[in-house]
Known about the structure:
alpha/beta; 4-stranded mixed beta sheet
Amino acid sequence: MIVNFWASWCGPCVDEFPLLKAVADEQMADGLVVLGIVYKDRSEAARAFMQQNGGTWQALVDPDDNVARAYKIFGPPETY
Length: 80
C-alpha cells in the first residue's frame, strides 16, 4: 500500500503524480493499493486534478487534518 499526502496546488506533488500513476498502473493488478490523502485543498480542485491527470486511485479529503496529524505531516507531498 502507498499512502500519499498531496494537494493540487503543490508543485512537487504535480511533479510526483506521473510517477505514482505509472506505479499504480503497473502494480494494481498485482494488488497494490494507492490511497491519496488530500492535504489542505478543496475537494473540487483535487477531483479536477485527478481527472485531468488520469488518477485512478481513491483520494480522500482530510477536512480537519486528523489523518495528517496522525502521520505527523509537515507538508505535501509525503508518501508512505
